[in-house]
Structures are given as C-alpha cells and as structure tokens.
Design brief:
mainly alpha
Length: 399
C-alpha cells in the first residue's frame, strides 16, 4: 500500500514541476498519467499493484467528472453561452441522436455477433464528449467564443442526456422474460433523470449559496475552508441527485452554472481550488485506467475494435455535427473543428464500468470497444488539441 502511495504521489509531485511545459506541448496530462499507469502497472514493470474493483474506479471517475463539470459550468461566460445557444441546441438535439444512430450502424456491421441492444449500448456509451481532454481548445481565448463555449457546454450536458438512454438499453438487455420496454419507458426515464438532476443541482446550489453568504457575513467561514466549497458542492450536487434517482452529471453541471452566476466577486479564487481537486481526481483516474485497463486491452485488440474506435472518433461524430450545423453560420472549417473535438473520456469510462458490472452477454466486446476508443481519443485529441486550436484561431479569429 505504501509503495503504491509513494509511486502515485511521487509522480504527481514530479509532474507538477513539468506541468506547464507539458501543457504547452502536444502531450496532455491524461496521456502522461495513463502511460505512467501502464508502465508501472502489472502489464509492464509490475511495481504498481492496484487491487481495485470496478466500483472504486467508477467512483473515482464519477467524482472527477462531477467536479470538472461543475467548475467548467461555473467558468462559462453566460453572455457567450446565450450567443452560442443555436449551436448548442443543434449539437444536443440533432448531432447527438445522429451520432448514436451512426455508431449503431457502424457497430452492427463490425460486431455481427452482438445483439442489437448491445450495439446500441456501445453507440450510446461513446456518444458523450469530454472537454477535459481538449482543454487547450475550450480555454483558448483566441478561438471564436461561441464555438469555444458551445463545445464546453455540449460536453457538460451530453453526458447527463446519455445516462437515461444508456440505462434504458441496459434495462432491455437485462430484462426478464415477459417484460416489455417501450419508447414511453425511455421518455419517462429521460424526464426523471434530467428533471431530478435539474431540480437537485439548482436547489442544492441555491441553498448552499444562501448558507455560505449568511456565514460569510458573520465572519464564520475561514479562507482555508472556503477553498473546499466548490469541490464539496459539486460532489453534493452529484451524489444527492444520484441518491434520489436523477442524473448526478446534469445536477453538477447545472449547479456550476448557478454558482458561477451567484459567486461573482470571489468566483475565480473559489474555482481555482475546485480545479485543483478535479484535476487530481482526473489524473488519478487515468493512472488507474492505464494500470488496470490498458494492458489487457492492448493484448486483446482486434481489427474490428480498432476500426470502430477510429470511425467513432471521426465519421460517426463529425458527419452528424457537420449536418446539424448546416445553416448555422458556422464556417466549413468550424464545422470540421467542432466535429473533431469530441474526445471520449471519463463519461465513457463510467458507462463502461456500469455495463461491465451487469455481466451482459458480449460484455467483453462492449468494454473492449469503449476502452480502445478512449485510449485512441486520449492520444489523438491530446496530440492535436494545441496545434489545431492555434491554427483554427489564426484562421477564424476570436469573434
């Protein structure tokens, strides 16, 4: 246990000294930590022996995702979000369903041994995007603001939207004889997940903001403890929504939007601490992913999973995005740019663990397809984020 702690904490310390240099290169933090996990894990040197089950990895990834979604939403420029509203609606209402359908079509061709529901699960699990993997894109102030914020908010909402869809397909795959599931069930599940997530996220944040303001006026809250506010509030929104049957991801993102609107004076200071916590959770998740998942995945590669991953990151995402943005005023280069920067990361990992725990027939193929896609995304989007965002910014400007 102590060797494991030393290996992980020591590497975080080492990385901290080079983080600025790494962030200016074509290498992302996710790439570095996943590669480190693979190197010291049982598939290579074997010095990092992680005895973790799926529940631990899932919890770690969920906490990282909740904090990141909250912080990203709180950072969002509300005026720019309103101006990118048209792009956002097109991406969520048109491109997202088309992406799932395209992923389903490709999966049906490449995985003929899987059931229709299993293929639908893969397509849904790989539809959400992860803005954290494309951080140089959503934080590049040189990029057109509505594209930057559109990608950021899209990644914050499509995770939560895909949860009820995935749970519906999972229920279909595990239903007992005589049970019938209809689109009505999916709609009810969608409304319940999203509705509860919205109410809990907004409600918890409003209550927390009132209490914190009341205690601050009396000088009861110290600078030290105020630094834990964002991370604690993000996890509270997420966990409370999950507990009552809603989408914790939606709750975390909506809570962040509300918090960003209310905490204007100290927002930057408070969010900085939340960013640090989210980054640590995220990098720990990538270490575990590299050590526990990447080795077995690399040994089990098949041409079908590699081809599906490549298509999922390109055609399956980019064509629906391009079609959905037709008539939006976004340039051709802008459509291609938005389509490419749909990296797959923490949300897909969480979904894969949920499905793996259900022990479905063909579950190994499902997990492999998702894992290979995430690995390829970490590499491809990590390498391309900085140079492509700079090139696109110089072409389009920051208007």
């Amino acid at each position: 246990m102590y060797l494991t702690l030393a290996l992980i904490s020591g590497f975080i310390l080492l990385y901290a000294g080079f983080a600025g240099r790494v962030e200016r290169s074509k290498v992302s933090g996710a790439m570095v930590f996943a590669a480190y996990g693979l190197l010291v894990g049982p598939s290579a040197l074997g010095v990092l022996d992680l005895h973790v089950d799926g529940e631990i990895v899932r919890t770690l990834a969920e906490l990282a995702l909740a904090v990141i979604l909250f912080v990203d939403a709180a950072h969002a420029d509300k005026g720019v979000v309103k101006s990118s509203y048209g792009i956002l609606i097109r991406l969520l209402a048109v491109a997202l369903p088309l992406t799932i359908l395209a992923g389903f079509g490709v999966g049906t061709l490449l995985f003929p041994g899987l059931t229709v529901v299993a293929v639908a699960l893969i397509a849904t699990m790989l539809a959400p995007t992860d803005a954290a993997l494309g951080k140089p894109v959503v934080t590049n102030q040189k990029l057109p603001a509505r594209i930057r914020e559109g990608l950021n908010v899209e990644s914050g909402l499509n995770d939560g939207i895909c949860v009820p869809i995935m749970l519906f397909f999972l229920a279909m795959a595990t239903r007992t004889a005589g049970e019938a599931l209809t689109l009505g069930h999916m709609w009810d599940l969608f409304l319940e997940e999203v509705g509860i997530g919205v109410v809990v996220g907004i409600g918890v944040t409003l209550v927390a903001a009132f209490v914190l303001k009341w205690t601050a006026q009396r000088g009861w809250i110290t600078d030290l403890w105020s630094r834990l506010v964002v991370a604690s509030l993000a996890v509270t929104c997420f966990a409370a929504a999950q507990w009552v049957g809603g989408s914790g991801l939606i709750a975390a993102f909506l809570g962040g939007l509300v918090f960003g609107s209310l905490a204007r004076k100290r927002k930057k200071e408070l969010l900085h601490s939340g960013e640090v916590v989210g980054e640590v959770f995220t990098l720990l998740t990538w270490v575990v992913f590299g050590a526990v998942v990447m080795g077995p995945v690399l040994r089990s590669l098949s041409w079908q999973t590699v081809l599906y991953a490549a298509l999922s990151l390109t055609v399956v995402r980019m064509v629906p995005v391009f079609l959905s943005l037709t008539g939006s005023g976004v340039s051709t280069h802008g459509k291609l740019f938005i389509g490419w920067f749909g990296p797959r990361g923490l949300a897909s990992i969480v979904f894969a663990i949920i499905v793996a725990q259900a022990e479905l027939p063909g579950g190994d193929v499902i997990s492999l397809a998702v894992a290979v896609t995430v690995i390829m995304s970490v590499i491809a989007h990590g390498i391309s984020a900085t140079p492509l965002s700079e090139r696109f910014a110089s072409r389009e400007g920051s208007g």
